[in-house]
Design brief:
The chain has 203 residues and is of the alpha/beta class. The protein contains 5 helices and 7 strands, in the order E-H-E-H-E-H-E-E-E-E-H-H. The chain has a 7-stranded mixed beta sheet.
């Protein structure tokens, strides 16, 4: 059993990551176990840069393997916004409701067939031996005109998966992980991590 710190302040992400790792011999520790660690400053220009800087920051402070997630929503009609600023779209510390309201206002004149968008997720794993592994996932969808569903977090109630005819907020965690950017990135990370462990055993 190895212990991994899930290095995120977002409780929605912790739940999804813990559910995805539940079948593995991994103990998931959340950041509330480490209240003295200062928050990482997310000043990267890309999801990858922010994921790596968060994982590195928390690995240095905990001395433990850390898994960080940087993710966000890219809306085509907004030239990819809010992107890396998704959590702060309606200002620093903005609520999900405020970000959703701003998104709906920005898309008010955009017809349904032009409301295409995708979620992106980059995961970074850093361990005290200096390993740095990254993995990505994306999920395509469209933005509705009003929220549907109560699950998930963030923009989930507005994000429709056309194939499933459900928003991400109308899915269980397991259903969301099966199709989401984060679920895909977690599966890619599991493969990358297994390969890394195998190669280092042989070395
Ligand atoms: O509806 C959503 N379903 C998702 O599955 C999802 N994944 C990301 N997002 C949005 O993108 C921001 C990430 O920003 P972010 O990576 O900086 O995370 P965060 O600031 O919330 O926590 P931390 O991990 O940085 O501590 C989040 O706050 C959300 O607005 C999502 N919205
Ligand atoms: Mg953040």
């Amino acid at each position: 059993m190895i212990s991994i710190v899930v290095a995120t302040g977002n409780k929605g992400k912790v739940k999804e990551i813990a559910a995805a790792l539940a079948a593995l011999p991994v103990e998931v520790l959340a950041l509330d176990k480490f209240p003295a660690i200062p928050e990482a400053e997310e000043n990267g220009d890309t999801f990858a840069a922010n994921a790596v800087l968060k994982a590195t920051h928390y690995a240095l402070h905990t001395g433990m393997p850390c898994l960080a997630d940087d993710s966000g929503l890219e809306v085509d009609a907004l030239n990819g916004a809010p992107g890396v600023y998704s959590a702060r779209y309606a200002g620093p510390g903005a609520t999900d409701e405020a970000c959703n309201a701003k998104l709906l206002a920005a898309l008010a004149d955009v017809p349904q067939n032009e409301r295409t968008a995708r979620f992106r997720c980059v995961l970074a794993y850093v361990d005290p031996d200096g390993a740095l592994l990254t993995a990505e996932g994306t999920c395509e969808g469209t933005i509705l005109r009003e929220p549907r569903g109560t699950g998930g977090f963030g923009y989930d109630p507005l994000f429709l998966l056309p194939g499933a005819a459900k928003t991400m907020a109308e899915m269980t965690i397991e259903e969301k992980n099966a199709v989401s950017h984060r679920g895909q990135a977690l599966r890619n990370m599991a493969t990358t991590l297994a390969r890394y462990i195998h190669e280092n055993r042989r070395a």
